[in-house]
């Protein structure tokens, strides 16, 4: 068994995380991942009958879910995953802007990111985001990439819950499933993705994002 979250928007315009226990199918094959996704979605449906559920990852059986994966989205010609990894700044002063030009897998797996000490924040486009804004920075860049590179964003109206089978809250704070839940709320509130400044986005985040 495994326990993983799904993200949704509440009636009072909050982004929340609900955890579900489901049968996990071990193995790295896509077919095994998709079995785990199906098991997770079945448990969500048991608790919330008739809910629309969208898996956000390269393992999704939905083309929209695949397009919304961080490994496929780009902003200003660079993969979202590469932007995020290359923006990291460590207590030693180390940072690796050259990761911007790698493939998403290369950037995420670069051993220096695990061997450079404590992460202190992110430096992107001349603006520093402290570690306390870690999830907010990821979601900020994610929304920028979606706005620039994806036209089908209004299709997410068909879904209430968003999952990311690769996301383990015990190991990471960032997930594209939360990002898409935020995207849906923004469409509900503004009918588009606003051009937030860092300060305005953090105000929105503090007001609406619970997890």
Percent strand equals 15-25%
The largest beta-sheet arranges its strands as: 6-7-8
Count of discrete alpha- or pi-helical segments spanning 4 or more residues:
7
SS-derived structural category: alpha+beta
Q: Tell me the count of domains.
A: 2
Largest sheet report: 3 strands, antiparallel
Radius of gyration: 17 Å
Q: Tell how many strands the DSSP assignment holds.
A: 9
Question: Which SSEs are present, and which pair or pack?
Answer:
Elements: E1 2-9, E2 15-22, H1 30-47, E3 53-55, H2 63-67, E4 74-75, E5 78-79, H3 80-86, E6 88-90, H4 104-109, E7 119-124, E8 127-130, H5 134-149, E9 161-163, H6 176-190, H7 198-208
Parallel strand pairs: 3-9
Antiparallel strand pairs: 1-2, 4-5, 6-7, 7-8
Write a structural description:
The protein is α+β, with helices and mostly antiparallel strands. The protein starts with a strand and ends with a helix. Helix 5 (134-149) packs across helix 6. It has 7 helices and 9 strands, in the order E-E-H-E-H-E-E-H-E-H-E-E-H-E-H-H. Strand 7 and strand 8 form a beta hairpin. It has 2 domains: 2-68 and 150-208, no CATH class; 74-128, no CATH class.
């Amino acid at each position: 068994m495994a326990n993983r979250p799904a993200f949704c928007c509440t009636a009072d315009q909050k982004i929340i995380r609900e955890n579900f226990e489901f049968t996990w199918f071990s193995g790295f094959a896509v077919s095994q991942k998709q079995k785990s996704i199906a098991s997770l979605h079945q448990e969500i449906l048991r608790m919330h009958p008739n809910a629309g559920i969208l898996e956000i990852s390269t393992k999704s059986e939905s083309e929209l879910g695949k397009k919304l994966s961080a490994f496929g989205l780009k902003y200003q010609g660079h993969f979202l995953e590469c932007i995020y990894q290359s923006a990291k700044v460590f207590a030693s002063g180390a940072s690796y802007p050259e990761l911007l030009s790698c493939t998403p897998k290369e950037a995420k797996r670069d051993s220096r990111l695990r061997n450079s000490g404590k992460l202190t924040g992110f430096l992107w486009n001349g603006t520093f985001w402290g570690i306390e804004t870690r999830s907010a920075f990821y979601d900020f860049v994610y929304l920028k990439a979606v706005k620039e590179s994806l036209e089908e964003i209004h299709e997410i109206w068909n879904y209430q819950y968003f999952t990311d089978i690769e996301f383990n809250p015990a190991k990471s704070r960032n997930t594209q499933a939360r990002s898409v839940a935020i995207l849906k709320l923004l469409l509900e509130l503004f009918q588009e993705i606003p051009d937030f400044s860092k300060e305005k986005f953090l105000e929105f985040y503090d007001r609406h994002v619970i997890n």
